From TrEMBL:
This is Mannan endo-1,4-beta-mannosidase. Keywords: Carbohydrate metabolism, Glycosidase, Hydrolase, Secreted. Pfam families: Glyco_hydro_26. The keyword Membrane does not apply. It comes from Flavobacterium johnsoniae. The lineage of its organism: Bacteria, Pseudomonadati, Bacteroidota, Flavobacteriia, Flavobacteriales.
Length: 375
């Protein structure tokens, strides 16, 4: 499929056999999910979607305001991709879990009905110990071995997945269709900060848990509105290193990467290294007929007022990368410095508007019928 776009108008034209070889791992996926998958591939040929984590739940100095996002306050449009998290779906009181589910359900459905896209990360609280989702020495247990089939906490893990499945099967729009979501479990697994990280999990256990997670959600619990994304941090320098814990082509729809370190964190830039890593996931997507995306990045507090065009956009436009979206991290409601997208009067606003107006980048207002196959 060739995908031709102008700002505020996306036109689907000309089906080509090659692009329809891109098939997701769930053969029973809903029509809307299949269409989203194909359209994300089409978009990546000559554009990229912009995303922001927790964009609609809260922002710089505010929270829980209807139809508000910091990105919209600056540009007039919500981001095309909105990040949410399943962090409160386990390890919390039933009251907190249910409240979180209600908030997120409305968020997902509203985004779908506006024509936007939801991606889901999972800061998964350790099911076998205290310590939350981070690894805490002396507190956290290496629990991937415990939640895999046959493990001491496997049945508990299945109950947690049932909560996720119930949510996935409840996000119904007014017309009765389910809202598709890009699900990104166990992200940054090559690092040492989460309990599922590489130092605490064997390659074999990681792969077994991933494969079980997808199979149980899809084949047993009947979740058919997920696109599954695989996203390590940036601790790889080759395709073989990237694929070291890859669970296989039957269990992944999208290749992703989280990379802050190469894009200005602590004032350090290595754009050449960042681009090389993006090339690896982009080329894997092309080779394996799957999607690719820059699943997390950003510069905290955005002190570089030209970061959007001279760092991010310049990199994304390089070397024929084929990426569906780029997502920057959240804007905290309370912290004066923890933010990754601009808000009114932030110093990078003028440059972000150039980023927004560039024909290469797409925001929610630019999307038309992303869940339909138009030809």
């Amino acid at each position: 499929m060739n995908f031709i776009t102008q700002k505020n108008a996306l036109l689907f034209v000309c089906i080509t056999a090659g692009h329809f070889l891109f098939a997701q791992i769930d053969k029973n996926a809903t029509k809307e999910t299949k269409n989203l998958y194909r359209n994300l591939n089409a978009i990546s040929i000559s554009h990229i979607l912009f995303g922001h984590q927790h964009a609609l739940e809260y922002g710089h100095g505010w929270s829980n305001e209807p139809d508000k996002s910091d990105v919209k306050s600056v540009t007039g449009s919500h981001p095309a991709v909105v990040g949410i998290d399943f962090s409160d779906f386990s390890g919390q009181s039933k009251v907190k879990t249910e409240k979180s589910i209600q908030v997120l359900r409305k968020n997902v459905v509203d985004t779908y009905e506006r024509g936007g896209i939801t991606t889901v990360s999972w800061h998964f609280n350790n099911p076998a110990s205290d310590g939350g989702f981070y690894w805490k020495e002396g507190i956290s247990k290496a629990s991937m071995a415990l939640i895999k089939p046959g493990g001491s906490h496997h049945e508990q893990y299945k109950e947690i997945l049932k909560t996720i499945a119930d949510f996935a099967n409840s996000v119904k729009a007014k017309d009765g269709t389910l809202s598709p979501m890009i699900f990104r479990p166990f992200h940054e697994f090559d690092g040492d900060w989460f309990w599922w990280g590489k130092p605490y999990t064997s390659r074999e256990d990681f792969i077994e848990v991933w494969q079980f997670t997808v199979s149980y959600l899809r084949d047993t619990l009947g979740v058919h509105n997920f696109i599954y994304a695989f996203s390590p941090d940036n601790r790889f320098n080759s395709e073989s290193e990237y694929l070291e814990r890859y669970p296989g082509d039957k269990f992944v729809d999208m290749f992703g990467m989280d990379d802050y370190a190469d894009f200005g964190r602590d004032g350090k830039y290595d754009l050449e290294a960042g681009l090389k890593k993006l090339e690896i996931i982009s080329n894997l997507g092309k080779k394996k007929k799957k999607l690719a995306a820059f699943t997390e990045t950003g510069l905290e507090s955005i002190p570089n007022e030209k970061w959007w065009t001279e760092v991010l956009l310049k990199t994304l436009k390089s070397n024929d990368l084929k990426l569906s979206y780029v997502l920057v991290w959240r804007n905290d409601a309370i912290s004066p410095t923890h933010y990754y997208a601009p808000f009114p009067e932030q110093i990078s606003v003028p440059d972000f508007l150039k980023f927004y107006n560039d024909p290469f980048t797409l925001f929610e207002k630019d999307l038309t019928n992303i869940y339909q196959m138009n030809f």
